[in-house]
Structure prediction request, 89 residues.
Amino acid sequence: MNKHEKQLSALKRIEGQVRGIQKMIEKDEYCVDILTQIQAVRGALVRVEELVLERHLQICVKEAMLCVSDAEREEKIHEVLEIVKRARK
Prediction:
């Protein structure tokens, strides 16, 4: 089983949603309906992002905090802080 099975499943659904948006645009459907679908995709991507971050914290960061050097622990902390900073932009 893939370690990111939930994320992959969600991304496949998102891929289908994006294709649906493309078709809506090709058919010149109502702009508000297209925007609603785009917002749904953005929300779904945020949820995938949260799942990946949670997994990183639970596995990679937790492991680094328990057993490795101070330098590696600091590196993991720095990684997480950078991710949070980028997400706020």
